[in-house]
Design goal:
- The complex is a heterodimer of chains A (about 325) and B (about 675).
- Chain A is mainly alpha-helical and about 325 residues long.
- Chain A has one domain.
- Helix content of chain A is about 70%, strand content about 0%.
- In chain B, β3 and β4 form a beta hairpin.
- Chains A and B meet through α2, β1, α3, α4 and α5 of A and α15, α16, α17, β5 and α22 of B.
- β1 of chain A pairs parallel with β6 of chain B.
């Protein structure tokens, strides 16, 4: 294990994640002819939440207070397993894609329990919807990743990135393109974006993620929000560096190469954020029971991707 | 086998026998019968675990010999047992559960004082453990069938233990009928094998399949698949399982879901990998397909349940499906000549067998403790138990995380191995494998995510938020032995999850016996701390590393807390009630409501039906009474079993004409039969 790399990636995760959320919020406002909050407003929000007193529901048990830490820590840990500016990722050995998906599911499990615990109907509604949609999204996610994992003959994310990098033209392989598309849909769903969920809403009947957080306050809320933005960054990194590892520094790269790789990563991240902003602005949120159609479409895309690996292998 | 484990194993069997005798002898004195019956069962279980685990760990099983338990007076039958690696592995599972469940039962059986005969209960429990252990160890087809029957009959009597309720009696009968349907197939299968080998000894069946003609071999396989499949509860032979497991006393439910269902898996492994030789491809395809369907349907039906124990029973079907996926993949690899991959898939399936036994038993014990405290199995009447039953809630939560295949617990490890074996199939050249395996993997992902949804519901509705009924409000923690039993299994879940690399060594003699490979070296890297998918390019995972890293990262949030929130205070206040006069339990989300989105999404399968009756005086918006009913159709009952039952009943009604009660007619039947036989003999 490479300790400096680990600490650097940890800092990058902690600091970059809120900024990505802020940038998306800001650009979205711009695109909708509003001024919007400054991109770094999210940092101030988090600091404010951390300082605030907490109100905990009288009905809640220890699970309620335990959940924010699980959400936050699992998101951080998965971030260390995904290659961000160089391969292999710091904790590559401890788990590949299956562990990443598993740990994110562990965070979601406790998030949903935290939603149910204060006995409010909103929380239960949010938990139920979150678990339902993620259950539908998971096979598509897995199948998309399997498609690239099969080509790389490994479930190790760094190996997959290396394998995609090694063969030029692989990026234009039909299997890869289809899996890429499927993964983008899943990314929108898993990060709670329009058309599946609306991060800006607090309207009872439409919210999913926010409904589970309604009873959280103070530092618990801060960890929940921060965890969610780290999870978003992790999924975006997974999407960018596993499916599109352009500019990613390889093993044993020098400081200059690492710097370039970081720049490439930031550029890709901003481009992806812009794509998310465009999708969020040009689409309306789907009704809850239409969202599975979208996710099934992602599953079908991923299946086609798999079939085309079969054909072109 | 060297002397020590063998003696210990015999001692364990002896303890069960003594437990039967002791419990029956002292049945008048309930406390004594409870202590002797379940105490001896616990001793037996503990010795059994020690014996089997040490035999597997030291590799002593490879040298073990078949020996006769006691001389037989019946021709053809030999009461011989052989603790080979496969038998020992399953023997370890039954003993581990026997140990933990017996300790739990010491507390659980107190609930029957003054109501029921605890002595008979204890004796039955011991007999069930004894028979199940013998099923795994028997080395002779007829002895196996005798043990199998004793197991089925004892299980039937224990399922019907609370026979005062009609539901229990019906479930018992269904179990009885289905179980014997399976046994019938097994008897036929063994007879066909006997015909080929001329002996009932298991050693004479070894790799017999390679010499059988293809048609007969396929018939034998199908007979065993149905026979063992009924016991395993695979779809579509599963319908008895969600009926029978919930109505049994909870310790028996745990034993049935944890171990007795696994006798089917044991049988399939024994037959598929030991008796029938190199399989044709369609066997593996069939098993993998059935496994995938069982896994998805099991978890989908589980989601629709709000009876806590029925929910757990449906999850057994799901997990049997996951195990069958491993076994099916192993069969397919065996066919295509990949012994290493076959071993990996086999290890995945069998490791999941062990893990499922542990966490499912744990969850049933938790459900038993909840039932003990609230006297209901209906989740809609529970809630708030995490504050009232702290330990039970913690243990149940661990079990829920484990069964949802979330890291770092044991369910994750075995599903990870299953994924690895499915994905590595792509390296082979067989087209069917390359297409089927990733799709099965995606279905496994769906199963895992749905299981997580189901256990958020099961734990959240049962243990969190406000109590929904008076019994739940006044619930109390279970007595100490019940907690201890759950604690042992919780520790096992954690241990099997964090140190899988230690347990892989136990599989070496097993895979050596069945596929001629030893994989534990290949599957561990980094000084045995990291689990590897095998080969240079397979993935790696370390549940121990994940856990340690989570602990190492803990200073991050704690540091932020110290840095920013040192002066913040915490207030306990009511949940926001939208300005109403306080939240009532009626306003909480229900289990039915929680699974409603999935009911809608999969409505083609569930065919949900709901009835709403509303009475009002002047305006439909101000109803005076409201009745709501919601149903889900159980497709297999209505589409397959109900027509089948109707056919059987009609056929029996027709045949009844033969049995007219007139002696003359019967004499004619005898005469005609005699003539027919004579003609046949000519």
């Amino acid at each position: 294990m490479n300790l400096p790399a680990l600490v650097l990636q940890l800092l990058l995760l902690l600091l970059l994640a809120p900024l990505v959320s802020g940038v998306i919020k800001n650009w979205k406002a711009k695109l909708q002819n509003r001024r919007g909050p400054r991109p770094w407003q999210v940092y101030f929000d988090l600091a404010k939440f951390l300082r605030k007193d907490m109100v905990i529901s009288e009905h809640a048990s220890w699970v309620f207070s335990f959940a924010p830490y699980v959400v936050f820590l699992t998101a951080l840990l998965t971030g260390l397993m995904v290659p961000m500016v160089h391969t292999p990722a710091p904790l590559s050995l401890y788990g590949g894609v299956l562990a990443v998906v598993g740990l994110l599911a562990l965070g979601r499990f406790f998030l949903a329990l935290g939603g149910l615990d204060p006995a409010s109907a909103f929380g239960g509604m949010g938990s139920s919807r979150e678990m339902t949609l993620s259950a539908i999204a998971e096979p598509a996610l897995m199948l998309a990743i399997f498609t690239v994992a099969i080509t790389a003959k490994s479930t190790d994310l760094s190996q997959i990135a290396l394998s995609t990098q090694s063969a030029t033209g692989k990026l234009l392989n039909p299997a890869h393109v289809l899996a890429f598309a499927a993964m983008f849909v899943v990314l929108l769903a898993e990060t709670g974006r329009i058309p599946v969920d609306n991060p800006a809403t607090h309207l009872e009947l439409t919210m999913i993620h926010e409904a589970m957080l309604l009873e959280y306050s103070g530092r618990h809320l801060a960890f929940m929000e921060w965890g969610a933005s780290i999870k978003q960054l992790v999924l975006m990194t997974l999407f960018l560096n596993v499916f599109f590892p352009v500019g990613l520094a390889g093993p044993g790269a020098g400081a200059g190469a690492l710097g370039l790789s970081l720049l490439a990563f930031l550029a890709k991240l901003l481009a992806l954020s812009a794509a998310v902003v465009v999708v969020e602005t040009t689409n309306a949120k789907l009704r809850l029971f239409r969202a599975p159609d979208l996710l099934s479409a992602a599953f079908v895309l991923a299946t086609l991707a798999l079939l085309s690996t079969f054909l072109f292998h | 086998m060297n002397a020590f484990p063998a003696t210990l194993l015999i001692f364990a069997l002896g303890a069960y026998v003594a437990g039967i005798a002791g419990a029956l002898l002292f049945q008048r004195a309930e406390r004594l019968a409870n202590g002797i019956g379940f105490g001896l069962a616990a001793v037996g279980g503990f010795c059994g675990v020690l014996a089997c685990a040490s035999a597997l760990a030291t590799g002593a099983v490879t040298a073990s010999q078949s020996f006769e338990l006691f001389p037989s007076l019946i021709p053809f039958v030999r009461f011989s047992i052989h603790a080979d690696a496969l038998g020992c592995f399953f023997g370890m599972i039954v003993s581990l559960l026997g140990w933990a469940l017996s300790i739990y039962s010491l507390g659980y059986a107190r609930g029957y004082y003054g109501r029921k005969n605890v002595g008979v209960f204890g004796a039955g429990f011991n007999l069930l453990l004894l028979a199940t252990t013998l099923v795994f160890l028997a080395d002779h087809a007829l002895f196996f069938l005798i043990a199998w029957e004793i197991m089925a009959l004892t299980a039937y009597s224990l399922v019907s233990f609370e026979h005062e309720q009609e539901e229990t009696r019906n479930a018992g009968v269904l179990f009885f009928v289905m179980s014997h349907l399976g046994t019938g197939c097994l008897i036929l299968g063994f007879l066909l094998l006997f015909q080929a080998s001329g002996s009932y000894g298991f050693d004479s069946f070894h790799a017999l399949g390679n010499t059988l003609p293809a048609g007969r071999r396929n018939v034998v396989f199908l007979l065993f698949l149905i026979g063992f499949g009924v016991k395993a509860g695979m779809v579509p032979l599963h319908i008895w399982l969600p009926a029978a497991h919930p109505v049994a006393p909870s310790n028996v439910s745990a034993l049935m879901s944890g171990v007795i269902v696994k006798t089917g898996i044991y049988g399939l492994t024994r037959v598929g990998f030991d008796f029938l030789g190199t399989p044709p491809n369609w066997w593996g395809v069939t098993v993998l397909t059935i496994g995938t369907i069982s896994a998805v349907l099991g978890v989908l039906y589980a989601l629709m349940e709000h009876d806590l124990k029925r929910l757990l029973a449906y999850h057994s079907i799901e997990n049997i499906g996951i195990i069958l996926m491993g076994l099916g993949a192993a069969l397919m690899f065996r066919h295509s000549g990949h012994p290493v991959l076959a071993s990996l898939a086999l290890i995945a399936g069998l490791y999941h067998t062990l893990n499922h036994a542990v966490f499912k038993a744990l969850l049933f014990l938790g459900a038993g403790a909840v039932l003990h405290a609230t006297h209901t199995r209906n989740m809609e009447d529970m809630g708030g138990l995490a504050k009232r039953m702290r330990w039970t809630a913690l243990f149940f939560l661990v079990g829920a995380v484990a069964i949802s295949a979330l890291p770092p617990l044991n369910g994750f490890v075995s599903e990870w191995l299953t994924y690895q074996s499915l994905l590595q199939g792509f390296g082979t050249t067989t087209r069917l494998i390359r297409l089927m395996f990733p799709l099965s993997g995606a279905m496994l992902a769906l199963t895992g995510a749905l299981a997580a949804a189901c256990f958020v519901k099961a734990f959240g509705i049962t243990f969190l938020a406000q109590p929904r009924s008076n019994p739940a409000r006044h619930a109390h923690e279970a007595p100490f032995p019940m907690l201890l039993g759950q604690g042992i299994l919780t520790a096992a879940c954690v241990f099997l999850g964090l140190f899988p690399t230690l347990f892989l060594k136990l599989f070496d003699p097993l895979t050596q016996q069945l596929t001629g490979q030893q994989l534990s070296q290949q599957l561990t890297t980094a000084n045995g701390l990291v689990l590897s998918g095998g080969g240079a390019q397979g993935g790696t995972v370390s549940t121990l590393g994940i856990t340690l890293m989570l602990l190492c990262l803990l200073p991050v949030p704690l540091g932020l807390w110290l840095l920013f929130a040192r002066r913040s205070r915490t207030r306990i206040a009511p949940t926001w009630d939208c300005g109403l006069r306080g939240l009532t339990p009626q306003m909480e989300y229900t289990a039915t409501g929680f699974s409603k989105p999935l009911r809608m999404i999969f409505k083609a399968l569930f065919r949900p039906r709901r009835e709403v009756q509303r009475e009002y005086d002047f305006s439909p918006y101000f109803a005076t009474t409201l009745r709501f009913e919601s149903h889900v159709e159980e497709v297999f009952q209505t589409r397959i079993y109900r027509p089948l039952r109707w056919l059987v009943l009609r056929a029996s009604r027709r045949t009844r004409a033969l049995q007219a009660g007139s002696i003359q007619a019967y004499l004619i039947y005898i005469f005609v039969t005699l003539l027919a036989l004579l003609l046949f003999a000519l």
